[in-house]
Amino acid sequence: MMNVHIAEKRYPNASVPIIKDLRFALNSGEFVAIVGPSGAGKSSLLNLIAGIDCKFEGSIRDQRTSLTPLNVGMMFQEARLMPWLTLLENVCLVSESQKSTLTIQRAHTLLNDVGLAGLADQYPNQLSGGMQRRVALARALMAEPDIMLLDEPLVSLDQPAAAELRELLLSVWQARQFTVVYVTHQLDEAVALADRILFLSTSPARVIREEIIELPRPRRRQDIDALNIDLADRVDLLNGRMA
Ligand SMILES: Nc1ncnc2c1ncn2[C@@H]1O[C@H](COP(=O)(O)OP(=O)(O)OP(=O)(O)O)[C@@H](O)[C@H]1O
């Protein structure tokens, strides 16, 4: 379990904090979605959890007894691939021993796992947006993550590509059982995927509501839609407050 408490996050020269008194716990292996208004500070929060940004007041504590640091995988709104590298090289890039046989074998396996077998020697610009995100997923998996931080990974994909990637994310998570923090604007996406949804206020962000999603998996579209409507009635997402 991990306890997140951001007492305050303020960017330099900003007159007001972007996050204030935001708390939640993450259970190991849980899929948690974070839904909140635009500009609330969701990406900033992921950067704090990832340890990319350490400048905040508060604490993010992993309760495991093991002293090994958590492995973190991240996926962003864009695939962020290096266009001059092949898919295989892009996936290997995050490894400390990029050229080792073991790394290369593992990258091939991961490309296979995300449905890109046989495309290892292609370049990113030869692929569709959805396929590029799959490469980004394979790259994130390279770290053998204990926790995966996903920042709107389906945004700007067309509907079929988004649906495919959503299913892939679910199956990868179910097979590997890492903890997921999934940021999205889309409530129905959160309902389709998450065990629990945390709703954020407008900036300074704090958790205004928590909802456990008890729908059995695989989830049926009509159940997702019904719960989505019900939740949307109770939470004013746009303005980050209770409706
Ligand atoms: N490095 C930075 N320095 C200064 N201000 C920043 C920095 N990063 C983000 N901000 C500001 O913090 C605010 C929140 O940004 P953030 O990207 O965390 O929100 P968000 O909820 O993820 O937004 P969106 O939903 O639009 O993706 C924005 O107003 C942004 O300008």
From TrEMBL:
Keywords: ATP-binding, Nucleotide-binding, Transport. SUPFAM superfamilies: P-loop containing nucleoside triphosphate hydrolases. InterPro entries: AAA+_ATPase, ABC_transporter-like_ATP-bd, ABC_transporter-like_CS, ABC_transporter_ATP-bind, P-loop_NTPase. The keyword S-adenosyl-L-methionine does not apply. It comes from the Bacteria. SMART domains: AAA. One of its GO terms (molecular function) is ATP binding. Residues 4-227 form the ABC transporter domain. The keyword Endoplasmic reticulum does not apply. Belongs to the ABC transporter superfamily. This is ABC transporter ATP-binding protein. It comes from Zhongshania borealis. The lineage of its organism: Bacteria, Pseudomonadati, Pseudomonadota, Gammaproteobacteria, Cellvibrionales.
